[in-house]
Write a structure and sequence with these properties.
Helix content: 40-55%
Radius of gyration: 15 Å
Distance between the termini: 41 Å
Largest sheet: none
Shape: globular
Strand content: under 5%
Structural class: mainly alpha
Order of helices and strands: HH
Number of strands: 0
Number of domains: 1
């Protein structure tokens, strides 16, 4: 059984780990613009108070990593 390659959620090219789940900063920015422009929206408020502590820690870590990568890209 071969490993299936993951693809960018915007353009379907091969995903690049640095921009996961996207292939490039361009696609990541395009996705972010969709959120800012309200093309995407959550149907209900996220139940953070119901999250398990380890899930909240994983979310905080992922956000910190994304911010760090973004800052690196801007320098």
């Amino acid at each position: 059984m071969s490993a299936k390659k993951k693809t960018c959620t915007i353009c379907e090219r091969e995903m690049v780990e640095r921009y996961r789940p996207f292939c490039s900063r361009r696609c990541a920015d395009k996705d972010l613009a969709g959120w800012f422009g309200e093309s995407y929206r959550l149907t209900e408020q996220a139940p953070f108070e119901e999250m398990e502590p380890e899930d909240m820690a994983a979310l905080e870590e992922a956000l910190a990593e994304a911010l760090s990568r973004r800052e690196e890209d801007m320098t």
